[in-house]
Amino acid sequence: MKGNFISIALIVIGVIALAVNLDLIEFNLIALMRKWWPLALIAIGAALFFTPESGTKKK
Questions:
Q1: pTM of model > 0.90
Q2: Please, is 5 exposed, middle or buried when counting C-beta atoms within 10 Å of its C-beta (0-12, 13-18, 19+)?
Q3: Exposed (0-12), middle (13-18) or buried (19+): which is 2, by Cβ within 10 Å?
Q4: Is the separation of the CB atoms in 19 and 25 below 8 Å?
Q5: Which residues have C-beta within 8 Å of that of residue 52, sequence separation ≥ 6?
Q6: d(Cα 7, Cα 19) in Å, to the nearest integer?
Q7: How far apart are the C-alpha atoms of 40 and 13, rounded to whole Å?
Q8: 35 Cβ contact partners less than 8 Å away, ≥ 6 residues apart
Q9: What is the pLDDT of residue 1?
Q10: Is residue 51 within 8 Å of 2, Cβ to Cβ?
Q11: Mean pLDDT across the stretch 23-33?
Q12: How far is it, in rounded angstroms, from Cα 4 to Cα 59?
C-alpha cells in the first residue's frame, strides 16, 4: 500500500504541475497549504495505518 500511495501522489502532483505550466488551471500552492494542511496529516496517518509491518509473521 505504501508504494501505491507514493505512486499516486507523484502522478497527481505531476498532473497538477503540468496543468499549471500549460495555463490550464490557476494554482496558488501557499493559499492551498494554509487551508488544507490537515489533510496531509490525515493522508500520512491513513497510509501508515494501512501499510503492513515488515516484522510480523502471520500464523
A1: no
A2: middle
A3: exposed
A4: yes
A5: 1
A6: 18
A7: 13
A8: none
A9: 57
A10: yes
A11: 82
A12: 26
